[in-house]
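Quick review question:
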């Protein structure tokens, strides 16, 4: 069998020439989250600052033989305080990325979106899965399957643009976005087909930039050239999409989990639209998937650094 993680390994290899990304890790208080941090630091992807109850973090490290002797710890009494302190490190300029430890995603994102002390920007915050699907030539970006439950058309503009910017930061030479629905024709009875058509027209008018968009497309004719040809869909995106935009969270979650559990795919995760990339890992993730999530954040942070230095220059 071909290397199962070759797409992720390519992403990790892209980071070899980059300095480790300073990363505030919120509440890494169990074995899997603490080990993920140490593995990513050892791989040179992140320079972590551990944020949480010092005694608990040190006890977990000792219990599981995880060496954290060289890592900085910012003491915080509980998970909510850890999230707030990690966000504060970003606001102070001490961290270029944020990483979820063993706290609930809602707790971390609550601190991120807080109006006065959070990390909001003008963009809607959204989540992307970067899927490594065995047998599929390229990584697939799926958005949004974790943050926005039932996004409006206005919110989908930001969701799409966040995903396009991510794809470009990851070095995709051509970004091809499929706006998914249950069919490839516009049907007034199916709202997602109307929104897909509107998003494509917005791209024509440069309200969304940096990619080729097409939709509505059903999943088969978004990723299978043969299916697109059978349906006689003439489009540079159909059959070749590398970004899949789903109608809502339920559809995205089912699509991502179907690929994971039926097709053996891995799902690296990142949240975009905040001041810094936010690394979301799951306890079920493999070591390579966790490293890939960190690599994605490192590439996004590097792209932002480059963009800032150009703006200053």
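Suggested answer, residue by residue:
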């Amino acid at each position: 069998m071909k290397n199962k993680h070759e797409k992720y390994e390519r992403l990790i290899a892209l980071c070899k020439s980059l300095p480790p990304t300073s990363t505030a890790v919120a509440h890494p208080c169990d074995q899997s989250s603490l080990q993920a941090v140490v593995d990513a630091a050892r791989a040179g992807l992140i320079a972590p600052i551990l944020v949480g109850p010092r005694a608990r973090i040190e006890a977990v490290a000792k219990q599981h033989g995880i060496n954290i002797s060289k890592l900085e710890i910012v003491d915080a009494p509980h998970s909510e305080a850890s999230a707030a302190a990690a966000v504060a490190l970003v606001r102070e300029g001490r961290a270029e990325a944020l990483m979820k430890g063993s706290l609930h995603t809602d707790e971390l994102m609550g601190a991120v979106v807080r109006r006065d002390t959070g990390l909001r920007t003008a963009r809607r915050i959204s989540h992307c899965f970067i899927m490594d699907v065995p047998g599929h030539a390229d990584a697939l970006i799926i958005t949004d399957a974790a943050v926005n439950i039932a996004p409006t058309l206005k919110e989908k503009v930001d969701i799409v643009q966040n995903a396009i910017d991510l794809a470009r930061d990851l070095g995709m030479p051509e970004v091809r976005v499929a706006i998914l629905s249950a069919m490839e024709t516009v049907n007034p009875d199916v709202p997602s087909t109307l929104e897909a058509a509107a998003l494509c027209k917005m791209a024509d008018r440069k309200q969304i930039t940096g990619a080729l968009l097409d939709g509505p497309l059903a999943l088969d004719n978004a990723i299978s050239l043969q299916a697109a040809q059978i349906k006689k869909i003439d489009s540079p995106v159909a059959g070749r999409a590398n970004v899949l935009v789903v109608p809502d969270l339920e559809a995205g979650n089912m699509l991502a989990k179907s690929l994971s559990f039926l097709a053996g795919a891995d799902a690296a995760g990142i949240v975009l639209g905040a001041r810094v990339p936010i690394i979301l890992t799951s306890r079920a993730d493999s070591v390579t998937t966790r490293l890939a999530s960190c690599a994605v954040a490192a590439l996004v942070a590097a792209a932002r650094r480059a963009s800032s230095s150009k703006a200053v220059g």
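Why it works: Residues 123-273 form a domain with the Isopropylmalate Dehydrogenase fold (CATH 3.40.718.10). The two ends are 48 Å apart (CA to CA).
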